[in-house]
Specification:
mainly alpha, MetI-like fold, 14 helices, 77% helix, globular, transmembrane, MetI-like_sf, membrane, cell membrane
Length: 278
């Protein structure tokens, strides 16, 4: 027993000795970004990795006064909340319909959805953009929400794998008690799949909040820019104000870091629950 404990202790020390340098390397970009928000332009370009001689928070004040940060955050929050809610709802409903009734049509339709899942977004960009132009949804936050709703396929793909592990005896019992399809879905299935819904919602939230490509294509009004677009527009054509650029980057990153730390246990619980069920 003593030999086993000694071996485990040695293995723990070796793991720590390996992980600490790796963690330091991974943390270096975050250190670089954060430290240079507290420097002047000259200090940033002259010694980017050095600590600031005296921390200067004037860049934060300047960015808040010159950039519509509050409006960009509001636009990003609006698009993120409604897009994630729509994707999770559509994905859960599709997974429920295709899993609860495994007919030949549903199986073929599921394969068609898988085919759409692997199609790159860039390959459908032009035709989708033309459709949105005709519908008057370009340069619109609601149109951007509809574009993101295509991510429902990813939600369906993840949720249906988890839903296949549910105890269908409970669903059959609810049917025998007189519950219709909608009642079974809202009162039985949704509470049972809550862990995977939370996991999918977290992944989609981080994707939409940090996405640059889609807003850059579909939005042209500066008043409707997301926070990531504001970071991009802070880069000049011939010169970059690095402290301002990095300060905006920190402002865009902090909400997602806090969000991820707050909900990481939901991610693990959803993934582990799906792994051990059945």
């Amino acid at each position: 027993m003593t030999a086993i404990l000694s071996r485990l202790r040695t293995r723990g020390w070796l793991t720590s000795a390996y992980m600490l340098p790796v963690s330091a390397v991974m943390a270096l970009p975050f250190y670089y970004v954060l430290v240079n928000t507290l420097k002047s332009q000259q200090q940033t370009t002259g010694s980017p990795l050095a600590l600031p001689t005296s921390p200067d928070f004037s860049t934060y004040r300047r960015v808040l006064n010159q950039v519509p940060v509050a409006a960009a955050f509001a636009n990003t929050l609006y698009v993120t909340v409604f897009s994630v809610a729509l994707m999770v709802l559509i994905g859960a409903m599709a997974a429920y319909a295709l899993t609860i009734r495994p007919t030949r049509f549903n199986r073929r339709f599921g394969k068609l959805l898988l085919l759409a899942f692997v199609v790159p977004t860039q390959s459908t960009l032009i035709p989708v953009y033309q459709i949105f132009v005709k519908l008057g949804l370009v340069n619109s936050l609601n149109g951007l929400v509809l574009v993101y709703s295509a991510g429902s396929i990813f939600c369906w793909f993840v949720i249906q794998g988890y839903m296949a592990t549910l105890p269908f005896e409970v669903i059959e019992a609810a049917r025998l008690d007189g519950c219709g399809p909608w009642q079974v879905f809202w009162r039985i299935v949704l509470p049972l799949i809550r862990p995977i819904l939370a996991t999918v919602a977290v992944f989609q939230t981080m994707w939409i909040w940090n996405d640059f490509f889609t807003p850059n294509v579909y939005l042209s009004d500066p008043g409707k820019s997301t926070i990531v677009l504001e970071v991009y527009t802070s880069v000049g054509q011939f010169q970059v104000d690095w402290p301002a650029f990095l300060t905006l980057s920190v402002m865009a990153l902090v909400p997602m870091v806090v969000f991820f730390v707050a909900v990481q246990r939901h991610i693990m619980s959803g993934l582990l629950s799906g792994a051990v069920k059945g």
